[in-house]
């Protein structure tokens, strides 16, 4: 009888089988163990590479914040206050990402989180829209933009006055074969007329230049007589997934 080669995948199979025709067993188990170890090592290496990429991205954003925050600030105390607030916004975004690294950030939580961080009175604003998950690549730029908008409306906008309200709405749109997130930030009812700023600071530069450059977003800032209106159109995908519809029922 000609010898035969039989492969048996069993982690604890004995060296000698009861069947005398089954001879080489350990080779298979060693192969399975080697493959399992290789898969685990590749998974670890991929995770480490992704972690390093995220750190590089975070430090790049921090460098940009430190550099740009220094422009236009009249004193060291103003510079320190604005810098601390922007780093705090980044920290909140990172915390949300770590709690749900694969699922993305809940846009509603992101909006409310920035307004809460600025101690905005809940009775003076409304935030409503369908369940939306913001992807990792878009989370930091969008989170910073919301931070700048929340801070501005308290320092210079309607939430810093006794009258006026803030409406934040978002929706999902589809057209030209592409899905977009439409985010509208609208202040109205200010007690005094509003005018466009003579100098554009960090916030406007972020909305008008950084978001279009990094996320291929379309943005528009208008200054009605007694308010302000900011519109952001964010594509669902670019170099990565920027946002997706969540599973929660629409309000």
Give me the Rg, rounded: 27 Å
Named at the architecture level, the CATH assignment of the largest domain is 2-Layer Sandwich
- Tell me the span between the first and last alpha carbons: 74 Å
| Number of structurally distinct domains | 2
The helix content is 40-55%
What's the main sheet like? 5 strands, mixed
Kindly report the average pLDDT value: 80
Residue ranges: pLDDT <50 for 5 or more in a row?
5-18
Task: Report what the structure shows.
- This protein is α+β, with helices and mostly antiparallel strands and 251 residues long.
- It has two domains: 51 residues, no CATH class; 176 residues, Heat Shock Protein 90 (2-Layer Sandwich), CATH 3.30.565.
- The strands form two sheets. It has a five-stranded mixed beta sheet, with helices on one face. Strands 1-3-8 form a three-stranded antiparallel beta sheet.
- A hairpin with a 2-residue loop joins β4 and β5.
- α1 packs antiparallel against α2, α3 runs parallel beside α4 and α4 runs antiparallel to α5.
- About 6% of the residues have low confidence.
Short characterization:
By secondary structure, this protein is α+β, with helices and mostly antiparallel strands. It contains 5 helices and 8 strands.
């Amino acid at each position: 009888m000609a010898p035969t080669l039989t492969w048996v995948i069993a982690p604890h199979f004995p060296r000698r089988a009861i069947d005398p025709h089954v001879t080489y067993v350990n080779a298979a188990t060693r192969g399975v163990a080697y493959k399992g170890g290789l898969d685990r090592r590749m998974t670890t290496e991929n995770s480490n590479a992704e972690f390093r990429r995220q750190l590089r991205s975070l430090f790049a954003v921090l460098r940009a914040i430190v550099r740009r925050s220094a422009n236009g600030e009249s004193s060291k105390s103003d510079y320190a206050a604005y810098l601390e607030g922007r780093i705090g916004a980044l920290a909140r975004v990172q915390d949300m990402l770590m709690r749900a690294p694969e699922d993305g950030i809940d846009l509603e939580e992101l909006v409310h989180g920035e307004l809460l961080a600025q101690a905005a009175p809940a009775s003076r604003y409304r935030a409503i829209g369908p369940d939306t998950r913001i992807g990792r690549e878009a989370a930091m730029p969008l989170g910073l933009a919301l931070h700048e908008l929340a801070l501005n409306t308290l320092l210079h906008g309607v939430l810093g006055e006794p009258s006026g309200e803030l409406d934040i709405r978002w929706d999902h749109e589809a057209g030209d074969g592409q899905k977009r997130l439409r985010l509208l930030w609208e202040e109205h009812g200010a007690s005094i007329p509003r005018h466009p700023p003579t100098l554009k600071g960090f916030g406007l530069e972020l909305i008008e230049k950084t978001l279009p450059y990094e996320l291929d977003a379309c943005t528009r800032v208008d200054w009605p007589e007694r308010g302000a209106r900011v519109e952001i159109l964010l594509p669902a995908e670019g170099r990565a997934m920027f946002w997706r519809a969540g599973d929660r029922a629409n309000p």
